[in-house]
Design goal:
The structure is a homotrimer.
Chain A: H1 3-34, H2 40-66, H3 102-123, H4 130-152, H5 157-160, H6 169-187, H7 208-227, H8 235-264, H9 269-284, H10 292-315, H11 324-341, H12 348-378, H13 386-391, H14 393-398, H15 416-419
Chain lengths: ~425, ~425, ~425
């Protein structure tokens, strides 16, 4: 391994980390776009805080829970608090066979950590208490996410069993999705979403441009999320991952386009947007294993799953304002299983491992999230009052509206009273 | 060629592809900002779909039409459907003299492909039928764009003739602009744009922040668009391209600022924004050939062209809501000709080749687009009904408004009826 | 130094320049979000123009003022107008010990140059005359910024004295902050901000999503701002800078969260957003010197400073609509001093040098900005008329509203009059 190759490998992981970072803006704008105007400041606040919480808890405990080095049985390990740079080349060129430094390893993984909690924030939007959410996110990201992450990426028992999850269809996305599901079950639907007469009331988002910006930024960042997960700048591997990631996202759009057209009749923008995300989540577990054609098939199916899953969750009265469970949980499971069906590792044996891997991680995560959220529910409470929900969280939790009230007719006059003070 | 150099070259093209990708969000937000509130979902939908269509058709046929390998006469060639990775090093370090892999070649070019159709989407906004547009975009991107692209970049007859177009002032931008012009001619202006009394009614966009976000993201992505077109990470070449691209965009802003101030009296934001784009389109054909000073001159002229072209198209009643023909067609031609006037290749002979190259590609593209759009017009129809146009495409095609209706006076009360269900 | 290492080093600085570029969109959206709806076009216009002005003046004089090569006394030098590529390898591999080319050096520094003026644009928003601002920005960026920049980065007297400012807590951020302070003192507060009864009227921004997009884009770009300031792709150095930059931003959010909760009681989104920026400004001077833990402490303190500084400036009736002086001036000074308190260079001697360095640069910058703005005030005038301020600058300076007036009740009908023309 020479210095130049080390430098370029390391540089790519850092740039990939930067791309993953911007996914948090993608989540923030997507979720902000899909909630109502009265809850926009609240969701932006949560997303800004989650990044901070994710990075800091990963520094304090997460990194050393996820990569404990030793694997006592492979279920749990901890290498101590904080970061401890190995001396000399042990933290540099020798750290990961010349692929990246100790600091790079930390920052790339840290950027992933907050993602799981961000997925939850969309599903519980518009009715969760802010303190409850922040506490939930802190504990979940600090403890639950790195433990299941260790099972595979930290060399734990699922890794030993042959479970495969390249960049986190299960370890990141389904994990976030399971936590979202547990939270929503305890939280209940938004007021007015499901009428007493059995009618389902659609509650459209307040800004489709924001939602679109979010999805496109997520796709943009996904090239770092998947491409960086090669963990080197290996030309063939990284470029194949770029191709499969791009094509699966594109196919996801088409899959959702076709199925939502058939099911609903209209050209549904939010379905196409979630279809893109579904395709991206779907390819993530096997982005390095698939041919371009296989990536397209996986993406098409993931995209087609979206409208079905959205309708399904609405039928069983699980109210998820942004479709996070459909995108991250359902397509995350699909992507994980797809590793056993398509590509270089396809086979019954692999499919079986993929299945019990996703179920094991799902069971742990769901239980952890459910117990944690339940404890919050019976202590500080997790749901805002009806009055707060009706008034909106922006005014009641933040004393701030997301937008200056628009002009009725004469924009230039509206501040005249202010000026005359 | 050593492995480290191969790795860094390849990495740069992949990162450049990522930057080109985000230009699609730039186009989406720019176009969304410049249309009216009632057509925002429609333009976002089109732009999301175009990326998917562009990537998938380029996978199916485009790449092999644009780079057929053999050039039978140099006008047309096809290397078969889908992607076929050459075996071993033939798809890797040996593929492009150690510059990039086969997959990288595909993904970088694929990111460009959708651009041409995106340019059209802006020009035909607010009145085209969605199905007609999607069909047009699919066929145009799948067939017309790669054929003329092959003439130069695929080693075809214009390449043999000495025509130069570094990153696509003609091959991408003017091609999109010609298709936009053909489409708009068949489609006609928006209702109410040109009064019976000869008056031209300005129809301002619905969100200048969105438009500004769009232009800045496009400039950001342009560093990949032009910088990646070096097709390696060669330090001197890529850094010069960064300098010329940055300065031409800046000069475009100044050119448009000065001329719009002289012509219209006001400080016109949309002119400055389109001036930046004009400068960027203008430098694109010769970004690697120009000195910084020449880049500034090219950008200044391109920027000054913008207000003139916008006024000109309005005078001849060609209604282009976002100014796409002014930016991409007029400045695309200017940039192509500028290669014969300034920089390393300047000369009468080169200017002549640049002229007939741009005309040849323009003639083919205009004809292709005109016939295709005409066929759609006489079959499924290309224009929405007057009623749909008045109501807006968001409600009529998508059954969704871009924004939650704003509060009249009391934002906190508006959802009370919903909550009381 | 081998070719591959040269190529990857150079590539990183170019990519870092691209990341710094997008910070200008960050500033534009942050400032646009924090002003009122009636002044949005104006702030977007200023920010678009500043980039152009910054890049072009840096080409004409700035680069050669900042890096004159010779240092006659170390206070001032000038290497002539325009760019002059050293011949052959002197502009290439030999230019900076194989780290980057002459063109790369220029473009990376040029991207920084406009930042200082952009900081001013936020502070003077909503009441400054456009021409006055553009003239101020041009002269300030062309002359003042590069002169003080030379004192340290160009090898001037402060560099000789041992002053340390890794990526510009003082040289970029505090410089912008001092100029903002001088400008605001001459300009006065917005109408209605401070009532005759001594009451301070909060004037919230018009769009919190735009403000959030701005902060996240700034953080994204900061990885290039700080990471690129390593001036090579050195794996250990760049990766450490990524870690300290990420953690300081995160800690800034937490610091502002805690203190604003204690002071104001509410969960204040704008404080958390400015806290992130404060943390980033704070770490910038010593991002390469700090351990992760030290970065967190610096960020926490910077974040906690934000609510205090905002309240302080409001008390002394310095009206800064976006909090630019709190973020860039106060946290810039804090970050500069922190180099003497924490990390590899900590010590009384260093702290003393940091103090007089920041004061020397502050004194020069404040004086330059004050005199320049004063000259503009007594000649063309710097403040718009009361009537213009009340009506808003969008209508009065640009004849354009930022947003299409929203629908009152029936969005689909509002354009019917237009269509009936």
């Amino acid at each position: 391994m020479n210095e130049a190759l080390f430098t370029v490998n390391n540089l790519w992981i850092l740039i990939a980390a930067t791309l993953v970072f911007i996914m948090h803006l993608g989540f923030a704008t997507l979720e902000a776009g899909l909630v109502r105007r009265k809850n926009v400041v609240n969701i932006l606040f949560k997303n800004a805080m989650i990044i901070a919480i994710g990075l800091l808890t990963y520094y304090i405990v997460g990194f050393n829970l996820m990569y404990p080095g030793t694997n006592a049985g492979g279920f749990f390990g901890f290498a101590g608090f904080g970061l401890h740079l190995p001396e000399g080349e042990a933290g540099g060129m020798a750290y990961a066979d010349g692929a990246y430094t100790y600091w790079t390893d930390f920052i790339f993984q840290a950027m992933f950590a907050a993602t799981a909690a961000t997925i939850v924030s969309g599903a519980v939007a518009e009715r969760i208490k802010l303190e409850a959410f922040l506490l939930f996110a802190t504990v979940f990201v600090a403890i639950s996410y790195p433990i299941t992450g260790m099972w595979k990426w930290g060399g734990g028992w699922l890794d030993a069993a042959g479970f495969y999850d390249f960049a986190g269809s299960t370890l990141v996305h389904a994990v976030g999705g399971w936590a979202a599901l547990a939270s929503v079950l305890l939280l209940g639907p938004r007021l007015g979403k499901y009428g007493k007469d059995g009618k389902i009331k659609p509650i459209p988002g307040h800004s489709m441009p924001l939602a679109t910006i979010g999805v496109m930024l997520l796709w943009f960042g996904w090239f770092g999320f998947n491409g960086g997960s090669v963990l080197s700048a290996d030309p063939m591997a990284v470029s194949l991952v770029f191709v499969t990631t791009a094509l699966a996202g594109a196919a996801g759009a088409i899959g959702a386009f076709i199925l939502s057209r058939l099911l609903f009749g209209a050209y549904d923008l939010s379905m196409v947007l979630n279809g893109i995300l579904g395709g991206l989540v779907g390819i993530t577990a096997g982005a390095d294993l698939m041919s371009p054609g296989e990536a397209i098939v996986i993406g098409l199916i993931a995209g087609a799953i979206i409208p079905l899953a959205v309708v399904f969750f609405d039928r069983i009265r699980i109210d998820d304002p942004v479709g996070a469970t459909s995108v991250h949980l359902v397509c995350g499971i699909w992507g994980t299983l797809a590793v056993g069906i398509f590509g270089a590792k396809a086979g019954w044996q692999q499919l079986w491992v993929q299945l019990y891997g996703t179920l094991a991680i799902g069971a742990f995560t769901f239980l952890f999230a459910f117990v944690l959220m339940y404890l919050l529910k019976i202590t500080i409470g997790i749901r805002v009052s009806e009055e707060m929900e009706i008034k909106g969280l922006d005014i009641t939790e933040h004393d701030l509206e997301a937008y200056e009230p628009g002009p009725a007719t004469e924009p230039s006059l509206q501040f005249s009273s202010m000026a005359s003070v």
